[in-house]
Amino acid sequence: MNQRTPLALAMTALFAAAQAGHAIAQETPPTSQAVTPAQAGGAAKLPETNVAGTSVRDDYQRDVATVGGKVPTTIRDIPQSVTVIDKAVMQAQGATSFADALRNSPGITLGAAEGGQIGNNINLRGFSARTDIYLDGFRDRGQYYRDTFYLDSIEVLEGPSSMLFGRGSTGGVINQVSKKPVRGPINEVSGTIGTNDRYRASFDLNHPLSDSAALRVNGYAQDIHTTRDVMNNQDWGLAPSLRLGIGTPTEVTLSALIEHNRDMPDYGTVGFNGNPLPIPKNQFYGLTTDRTVQDVLVLSANVQHRFNENLTLRNQTQYSHYKIDAIETSAHAVGTRNGNTFAALPIGPTPGLPSFSLDQLWVQLQSHDRQITDSSLSNQTDVIAKFDTGPVKHTLITGAEVGRDTYRNQAYNRTGAGQVASMLGWVPAASQAYPSNLPNVTTTTANLANGSADTIALYANDTIELTKQWKVVGGLRWDRYKAQLSNSITAPAYSNQTVNYTSVRGGVIYQPTESQSYYFSYGTSFNPSLEALTVTNNTQALAPETNRSFEVGSKWDLMSGNLSINTALFQVDKNNARTQTGTSGQYSNAGKVRVKGLELSATGHITPNWQVMGGYMYLASEIVQANDGTQGNVLANTPRHSITAWSTYTLGHWEFGGGMNYMSMRYAANTNLIRVGGYTRWDATVAYHQPKYDIRLNLLNVFNKSYLDALIPSDSGRAVPGIGRTALLTGTYRF
Length: 735
Fold this sequence. Notes:
CATH superfamily: TonB-dependent receptor, beta-barrel domain
Subcellular location: Cell outer membrane
CATH topology: Maltoporin, Chain A
Strand content: over 45%
CATH architecture: Beta Barrel
Oligomer: single chain
Helix content: under 10%
Main location: membrane
InterPro entries: Beta-barrel_TonB (IPR000531), Beta-barrel_TonB_sf (IPR036942), Plug_dom (IPR012910), Plug_dom_sf (IPR037066), TonB-dep_rcpt-like (IPR039426), TonB_sidphr_rcpt (IPR010105)
Pfam family, one: Plug
Family: Belongs to the TonB-dependent receptor family.
Number of strands: 44
């Protein structure tokens, strides 16, 4: 009961804030200016659609993204694949978590809690994007589970992009675009109840302070249980934002994100004999006393001055602080038990291995306890200039970035009697009588890791319009990344690294008509060994991994611009890849990884009442060269085929829709020892809309499909079962 008291108080505060906002709105004279999609932070291609003349519908389609050029850029002028997941799609799907929203991008696969990394772990085009998640253009490097309550959209830029974002971005970057204050009032509260004891409340309040100033506050609180036994999340968050000078030459935006999560960690099941341990979708391996507590604070300031229509100066600063307190238990190995003797079974495929029923097996548990503190302070200054050199038009962005990151990770071991460090003991594989602890467990202080990094960067990107049909995009960025790391127990005791790297970006765009765009692009990126301020021993002195991408694609706007069709063929090569040599514990840069692929996507309206969003991704991945026995293998968590599709149709006040996610077979780790089967999951929705309120029913996993969702490469591969059939009923009221 005591654990729920803070959450109950948070929910009460949210509703109180909503009522206060209602009172303020009633005291404020109504503005004569209507809220347009662009004012609300959107860039919808169609105007707002009034269904039966009563309710406003938001569009899935965006024709502008901020992720492709550091400023809002028309997607057809970005020579890379871009997916924009609009808030309208998230609302229609009932997608309140960052991970669920990203299921709309077929190039993304989900990871789960790692031994050294927790929070959102994402793969993009086969490569880890754990440190390539951004918030309003700044690296959001904290290890936490992100929510969508304050997001206007999520932008996915695919392909190496160090010229735009600095280190990392092998498969691309994911940028969260927060809701900004607008001139018109917004007063909206929502509540959700669902099966398996799910509760959520949220609000979005925008209060105009004058013709050129506004305050916006978003908030949420939730108490969510799932079809996975014992799993529950108790979270809340606030995101206030103040915008001054709207529509004037000088505009200032101040914003904050405050989020608190108390979640049950889920490491899923471990594998043996080449497959994940076959368990029911509700089976949990861990202790009921496990928890992951995360506190997030992000403060941002954006000052922009427009000298004239051709020259703009912008300065942005962001400070972020993340604190994680985790007591987590995972399945480590599967085996049989004879008294106090545990015999682990082979992880990989083993011909002749006897068959076992689940009730004959035991699971060894391991602790993953740590307290992590992350912080970042970054500043970017940009000059955006438009000018002509004869008949050639230029849009030049030049800028500088400085930043400092710090990292502290204090690990702890919980060890059972007779076990090696961090091993707790064994539990019956079939038992659902989950313990709160195992007997004779002692806790000891383990390694303390401290790290810091300083970044300095200079960059320039020019979009050159040669003619109405031809454009050239070119950019350079120089980064100096200086990092150091120390460990109290594990090796290395101390390491430091300074990397100087120049990233390039180039593209050619041919646009024979307003509805067609064809492009070729080339880009590079780099991954220092101390990129995440953690390191595998004997890799700290290695040169950075380098990546390059070739992509050719097309972007078509059909049906008078209401439906966007995108295609892309690409190849990403990771050179200087770190690989373990034949000498135990030694590493070199002798590895090479390659991913070839095809992507197709469609977003927009087929008819005024029929919206769609979907895509197909084909990925052929290969570890081309390695010295650790993985040469020729497929990259972990990289399916050959993946499909995402979502569609809704409005009929009067009613909205009907649904969609699916398909993913073919994947391997849980680069060793390819654990093979995870493919799956198709179907979701559905029905909604009733009125000017003052909406009522929506979402049904997730309609056919109650058993499938393995997020994968974890450690211990040769773990897999987390997906949720079973879940119903969500959401009511939204506007005042």
